[in-house]
């Protein structure tokens, strides 16, 4: 059994400064000694103890990013052996308080080899054309394992991991590394995605598994204090309670997915240049940053068609 991640390590999931002593949020000791400006009395029926998750955070200390290289030019599937979970080695060291000034950024914006997402990962189009993502759509609640994602088409729904597109490259040209950013839940999240050993690029499966792994990272209860209101904290607790009742995993503690509340349905990945400039200091990495878009659940995971 692994020990839970320390508060400092958990804080690295969200902080913008990446310093040994985080300067973005009050330290645990400072928060404990400072007078509380808000009351927690309105949070209904929270348990006095939320079990501490035994899963350790997937982020590890900062490591140097690889330099992306692209050589192929299609969505073809990589010819690799057995599949393993994505390497979650990159930490939120990519989040920095400062970023290039507008003048320098505008004049030096990377334009080489713009990546195009696989249609399954793109925003859904209202046009029903052969090339439209609406003709073949990904349906997934990120609370569930990536194995439970479904492809919706004009035929019977099919589990993605049983479909050939599961192993298709996530981008064209293939890229060995992607960084997915998401600001849902009131905190900045980062999802690093690495290609499997021997593969020329990240696959659709790699992307989904990386997203799932990060959302199911354990988070300590004191991270609730980073949220600005009692209502926001209550939404996290209600999501936690619903997840525990749904999965019967009564010994699990808070996880990052609880911060999403009811907004857990996958919509798409999309390019967000402003977000890339804000979150990533390495300019050469900006073309590899995509934003994760989610939407609210409507009682059940059903087709929107």
UniProtKB/TrEMBL annotation:
Annotated ranges, domain DUF6699: 138-272
Bias kind Low complexity: ranges: 101-110
Protein name from the UniProt record: DUF6699 domain-containing protein
Region ranges (Disordered): 57-113
Organism superkingdom: Eukaryota
UniProt feature, compositional bias: Polar residues: 57-94
């Amino acid at each position: 059994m692994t020990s839970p991640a320390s508060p400092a390590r958990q804080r690295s999931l969200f902080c913008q400064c990446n310093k040994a002593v985080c300067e973005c949020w009050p330290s645990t000791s400072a928060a404990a000694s400072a007078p509380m400006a808000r009351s927690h009395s309105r949070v209904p029926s929270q348990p006095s103890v939320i079990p501490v998750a035994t899963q350790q955070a997937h982020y590890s200390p900062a490591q140097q990013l690889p330099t992306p290289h692209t050589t192929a030019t299609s969505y073809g599937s990589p010819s690799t052996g057995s599949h393993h979970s994505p390497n979650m080695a990159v930490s939120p060291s990519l989040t920095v308080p400062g970023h290039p000034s507008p003048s320098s950024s505008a004049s030096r914006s990377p334009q080489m080899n713009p990546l195009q997402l696989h249609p399954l990962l793109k925003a859904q189009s209202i046009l029903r054309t052969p090339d439209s993502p609406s003709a073949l759509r990904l349906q997934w609640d990120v609370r569930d394992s990536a194995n439970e994602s479904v492809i919706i088409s004009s035929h019977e729904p099919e589990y993605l991991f049983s479909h050939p597109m599961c192993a298709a490259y996530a981008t064209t040209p293939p890229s060995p590394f992607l960084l997915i950013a998401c600001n849902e839940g009131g905190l900045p999240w980062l999802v690093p995605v690495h290609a499997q050993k021997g593969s020329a690029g990240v696959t659709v499966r790699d992307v989904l598994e990386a997203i799932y792994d990060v959302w199911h990272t354990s988070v300590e209860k004191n991270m609730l204090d980073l949220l600005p209101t009692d209502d926001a904290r209550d939404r996290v607790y209600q999501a936690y309670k619903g997840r525990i009742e749904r999965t019967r995993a009564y010994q699990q503690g808070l996880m990052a997915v609880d911060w999403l509340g009811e907004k857990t349905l996958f919509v798409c990945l999309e390019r967000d240049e402003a977000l890339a400039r804000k979150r990533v200091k390495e300019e050469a990495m900006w073309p590899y940053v995509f934003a994760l878009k989610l939407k609210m659940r409507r009682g059940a995971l059903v087709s929107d068609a």
